[in-house]
Design brief:
The chain is mostly helical and about 55 residues long. The protein contains two helices and no strands.
């Protein structure tokens, strides 16, 4: 015989797990300090300038 489960609790647990996964993704995406963002922007600009300087006219 199958185990009896409360469907409302199962639905809420599944939603909570999905929210936790989304929160982890958001922390990785937006949870950086201003200095980290500035360093990444500077690196991106440096790489773009290096690429542009290497282009031939």
């Amino acid at each position: 015989m199958a185990e009896i489960i409360n469907l409302n609790k199962a639905r809420k647990a599944r939603a909570k797990a999905a929210a936790a996964t989304q929160a982890d993704a958001n922390r990785a995406r937006f949870g950086r300090s201003k200095a980290e963002r500035a360093a990444e922007d500077a690196e991106r600009a440096r790489a773009q300038k290096l690429l542009d300087d290497a282009k031939r006219d």
